[in-house]
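Let us begin with a simple case.
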Amino acid sequence: MDTKASSPAAGDAPAKTAISGKAIAAILLSIAALTFVFSNVGPATLRFLFLQFTMPAWGWFLAVLIAGVVIGSLFPWFRPRKK
């Protein structure tokens, strides 16, 4: 019987995990979006019907970014279906 093959030796390095292309794209898009958000620091006014709100532009962009992430996770139309 060979018990050596079923258990890793104490000196073996842990298995490496590769980062997928989707993860790299998501990280790069997140960095680009957050750079855009935080580079717009001037005040911006939002008018909706008879309401008016003024706050820094980065706050509006960040709110829209978060809303997009939430909506994207609620409607997984483009995800592969489980078999």
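The second case is a distinct protein. As before, the sequence precedes its structure tokens.
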Amino acid sequence: MRALHTAATGMMAQELNVQVISNNIANVRTTGYKRQRVHFQDLLYEHHRRAGSATSEQNTMVPAGISIGSGVKTVSTGRVMTQGNMTPTEKQYDVAIRGEGFFRIRMPDGRTAYSRDGSFDLDAQGQLVTRDGYQVEPGITIPNNATSVSINAQGTVEATMPGQTAPQQLGQLQLARFVNKVGLESLGDNLFIETAGSGPAIDGVGGGEGFGTLQQNYLEEGNVQAVTELSSLIAAQRAYEMNSKIISAADQMMQSTTQIIR
């Protein structure tokens, strides 16, 4: 029976939906994480009788046809790029973006990746790097004798040196934004890379046109809402159960048909 295949597509779709929801819940405390949402579309239809087809030589027409669908398919697991809550950390190299934009991160293979995770630190050479040791673009080096470091809303990095009253400017953190940021490809490790779908990166600085501002000593939390995810999980479980009931009902109908034939 066709219902078996149709219900099976529904069960597979909800299984993937649960996987996405579980990943969101697992990352509820991940810095800068953007939750995913599954989007579905119905599959092809078999038209037994099309609406508007003629029913007589006097041009009378069928007001409503007969179309049988073949199930559901998953078309995307897009990111929801809303702002996460800002959390104070009291660490001078932690930086959060309030608004649009991504930090530019230089990967070991030379590619540029993008991240909302501003939990930075220093490497052995005093360069500003991510927790995995990847360089934050452009390369900014903090002198080892700096007494304090400040990063303003525009991303200007300044350090106070011993014996000096005026801070010394060390560099400017660069930001990037995209026409379609949902089209970015996830690499893991809180990193994204641009794709043909996202379009090329538009470079800028904090507070520039279309860009958010930076906030030192803060980090952006993931935008996962636990209550919302749990509600979605319950709905996905119920949808999975309903599709399994259809398979059971179709199986019972086939058994009845087989018994009649016997």
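The radius of gyration is 27 Å. The chain has a mean pLDDT of 90.
Keep these points in mind for the review questions at the end of the chapter.
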